[in-house]
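3.2 Worked example (two chains)
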Amino acid sequence: MATVTRENIGLLNDKLTVTITKEEYFPTFEKTLKTYSKQANIPGFRKGMVPAGMVKKMYGPGIFAEEVIRNIERGLNDYLVAEKLEIFAQPLPLSNTNFKPVMDNPSDYSFDFEIGLKPPFDINLKSIQAPYHRVKVTPEMVQEEVERQQNRLGKMTEPETVTTDDNVLNLTFEVCDADGTVAEGAATKDNSLLVKYFKEDYRKKLYGLKKGDTLVLQLKDAFEEKELGWVVSDLGLKDAAEAEGRFYKISVTKVGLIEKRELNEEFFKEAFPGKELKTEAEFLAQVEADIQAYWDKQSSNQLQHHLYHVLLEQTKMELPESFLKKWLATQGERAKTDEEVEAEYPTFNSQLRWTLISDKIITENQLEVTPAELKESMKQQVLGYFGNMSLGEGNLDWLDQYVESLMKDEKQVDGTYRRLVTEKLFAWAEDQIQKTVNEITAEAFIKMNEEHQHQHH
């Protein structure tokens, strides 16, 4: 049996020396060599009749080296298991990296390895205080969503001309000069816009337009700032500054008008399949509940993002930095330079710290994801691809079969598991901290998130 000695060489950084004697590996080497002699297939010799000396000369050095290394690795792994050492990654060899044993002079061998030890640390969620900004749903938000649903499920008609802010314009945008002359090869983009998305004083230019009519405009003149952002994005531009001063020729390819649905039981059923809503009051209550659920999810996401950073910043732990940088340098198709390691290490350090924190919370609180939860999550993902359509009983066989095939995909299962267990981690952690609930408007919430994102870029 291999002997292992342990020596501390730095913070959470030890050296392990693994030593094996000739008696531990040589008998197995000789046995393996005999097996090769019986199975060797060399031209000019019958199978099993190859001279032992020739086999030893051809295969001996490789077999000998493999046997020594196999025993060293076995001794190292047995020691790590017996001592129950919590280490990062794999031990790094410190010596014998160009090992060339002498088969004809078997002796004892020693190999040195460097290990990085995981640090002990405590997590005190009870001491964390965090604000929970809850958006209050207003009657205006409910009415806006009702109208959106009425339009979404409404019937599209094609009037001859634009007569109302609710008209839909199918437009072709072409980059041009101030006179509307389009250069050869100029960028072209199709888009659909409601008339009411344009600036109020600009809409009068749109009334009376019909299929085939054109206009020359600048985006900053035609749209308010809140609409300008997504129009710029739809046109494939990086930001509004890129569109500054640029002229577009817009051509009307179709005028549409959505006839809003009436608030009746048929409409309620289409808007919320499976809910059995019969009255307008029930419908409005469901709309409000859905809006509140959406914003509550956004509030939880914001809180969890805050909690993530607090845990990273306030959880005190020391890491074997020297070892980790050496290990990081070995990762990839080629060894990294010292400069590359220094550049990558801060991000790597944060990711590693979060892995240790999250693993500790998950393990100590027995947060688990069951196979049934994995299957259900994958089923919902599949339904999401089809817009969460309502499937009849006759269609469920193919869905179950597809989910079963996903369950055999290790990468798919691992990704889904990590997402679900992380959701459970934050849901558990959210219940442990001291939350201060503040009511806030949707506009203020959005502005707060935008400012936060700006600070982190």
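3.2.1 Second chain
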Amino acid sequence: MKDKFSTTSQLELTRRSMLKAATAMAGAAALAPAMGALSPAQAANPKVRGYGVTTAQLKDWSIMTKSIGVDMEFTGSNNAVGVFLRDVVASQLGDDVDIFIFESGTEDILGPQGVYLPIDEKNPELTLWERTSDDWKRSAVVQDREGKQWGVPVIGNADSFGYFPEKLGIKPDSDEEISWSVMFEDDRTRGRVAYDQTWTYSLGPAALYVQAKSGKKFGDTADLTKDEAKIVVDFLIERKKAGQFRTLHSAFEEQVQLLTNKEIDVINCWEPAVREANLKLGPNTTKYAYTKEGYFKWGHGAYIAAQAKDRDNLGAIYKVLNYFLGGEYRALQARDRGYAGPNMDLGVAYATEKGWSADDIAALKATEAKVARKFAKPYVSTTTPNNSDAMEEEWQRFLNA
């Protein structure tokens, strides 16, 4: 029996639009306390409510308010697609939320289902749309499989793994490309590897490595057939039984802890975990890998709740969407999280205008170059592959082995 929060079960739930009425009141009630009450000072500004992945947040939304005169009330969500779909669809959050932010894939389902409002590219508040490159605004992150525009690009990155250079005999200042073999079958790291237990995050990179090792290409490493997924999982089970993995992790806080405690030598993780670890351990104690085979390339899109068309803040919503394309948001996300996104040049211009240090400006330029280098490699992820049922079933074999 599948877990009720599994990806497969949630996709079925979404397509059937079940449980909407039964949980709408509960969902709205649960969300309201998290949003909090407005202070008298805030009430003067139009308000936009957001819900989605926490890494898309500014650390301080008041910065945006000062720039565009719009208040943001943002509630963070788990990055598991099943949880997101459950919250958005079953609880009818669009009744209270204006903007949803999540990874690529949900627009393929929730857009055509009428949960998201199509993007009006001619909205007068969307002033940066034309100058935004098609690589970002026409990507699979914000368009469905038919090419319909459901979202605005927010941030993106190409994930790999964190490692301790000294453990691999690599100079701390080196940016050489490293094979995923250090995670899967390297005697130097055996028993010192942490692997994410989420199949959407871990099955694809393993497929990249198996593909490179065997010389036989899969059709789509982000959407493996049952036979392809079995090949990859058979390999992972073999490596698990060989003692390659020390632990399986499931949360950002675990990533940081495993690195800072030096419990492992290699971990597939989010880049901010390496940055957080180095704040405690010292610069370049851990590194985030450039890889030989490829990356878990992802992007977040911002989508408008369909119900928002009947509210009086659609102009404010588009101001926020446009802000995601601008220099201030881009510079702050690159500085604080190491993420890139559309219009990186505006981020550099913003930092220069605000008098950021030469080192900070150089870091922004390095982030832009880093993401461009990584995006040249294979594997673009999706949270909703067509073969999710088969992939999830095979992944359970790995977890249970």
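3.3 Remarks
The radius of gyration is 21 Å.
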